[in-house]
Amino acid sequence: MTGSASVAASLNALDARAVQARDWAFACLGLSVEPGSASFAPASADASFRRYFRIVSGRIAGGQRSWIVMDAPPAQEDCRPFLKVGALLLEAGVHAPQVLAQDLGQGFLLLSDLGAQTYLDVLTLDNADELFAPAISTLIQWQLASCPGVLPDYDEPLLARELALFPDWYLSRHLGVSLSGDDLAAWQSVCATLIAAALAQPKVYVHRDYMPRNLMISDPNPGVLDHQDAVYGPIAYDPICLFKDAFLSWPEARIDAWLRRYHRQGLMAGLPLTADYVAFRCDADCIGLQRHLKVLGIFARINYRDGKPKYLADTPRFVRYVIDVAARYAELAPLAALFERCVLPVVPLA
């Protein structure tokens, strides 16, 4: 759903399933498939098996209208979490896509269109404060709506499975490095530290991908997308995800200023945050580190399992994130040493 003209330009013909999705959506909207009635084109590239298409029609009273069609093949994707979390976001007053029609048997959803420009498309050092302000407020609004027992728990087994992606896919499959002996012991120690730190945090709803690529420039701003993986877990997860992104890097001073803004506003709003900012920043660094290690594994898996190599180009960014955080905390020194031995020799950083 993160629109891109380049995506549309690169695909000139629709495959059979895309035609099926188009015909279903046009029937829902009462549109004709005749040329010139409405356009149907790819709206984004996605790291999963989901695809998104945008319908634009000028033959609607009041002017041009647009919609988004999600194509989620049932054999690979389950639309129900998307529907459930989307309803929770809307109930919380967050600007999320409205579901206008659904066919879960085919894996099709017809959604409202939140716009064609993502935060990632427009963010600069000059406008970041202005854009992140509503993103912070929206995140706090979403977290304030949290209730236990509604979303899956971000529990120890899930945290451990995510961390295992790093040695399994990034180290072993991508770099050809197998952990053993002292390196394996160091890795296991780090995992125990990160999992314990995550479980000790206050729990709220966690989007898990609350980053500029999934925030749309819209009215009200931002529109929030790709929420299907939301869970109930560490309060610092989404804030650090917002500012230590997969596709953008910011100066540390700016990151710290934004985290302080979130922390201050969250406390004033009544979120269950520790009043000690230093302790909160440690929580954010630790859960951010868990995410960065997971993403290294996921980006390698997307390449080797799913045949999507472009994400590997952003893995050095996450290596830098890991090195920077591990160097700040004594309990993470084994991870810094592990990266020095096993990663940096083959992934030099600029």
Average pLDDT rating: 92
Helix fraction? 40-55%
Structural class: alpha+beta
The rounded Rg comes to 21 Å
Separation of the first and last Cα atoms: 33 Å
CATH superfamily of the largest domain: Aminoglycoside phosphotransferase (APH), C-terminal lobe
The CATH class designation of the largest domain is Alpha Beta
Tell me the series of helices and strands, N- to C-terminal. Answer: HHEEEHEEHHHHEEEEHHHHH
Number of helices: 12
What does this entry look like structurally?
Helix content is 48%, strand content 12%. The relative contact order is 0.11. The two termini are 33 Å apart. The chain is built from 12 helices and 9 strands. β1 (38-44) and β2 form a beta hairpin. It has 350 residues and is α+β, with helices and mostly antiparallel strands. It has helices spanning 5-10, 16-29, 80-91, 119-122, 128-144, 156-175, 181-199, 237-243, 252-269, 277-306, 315-326, 333-342; strands spanning 38-44, 51-57, 65-71, 99-103, 108-112, 203-206, 215-216, 223-224, 231-234. The chain is globular and about 65 Å long. α5 (128-144) packs parallel to α9 (252-269) and α6 packs antiparallel against α7. Strands 1-2-3-5-4 form a 5-stranded antiparallel sheet. It has a two-stranded antiparallel ribbon with strand order 6-9. The chain folds into 2 domains: 5-112, 2-Layer Sandwich (Phosphorylase Kinase, domain 1), CATH 3.30.200; 119-342, Aminoglycoside 3'-phosphotransferase, Chain: A, domain 2 (Alpha-Beta Complex).
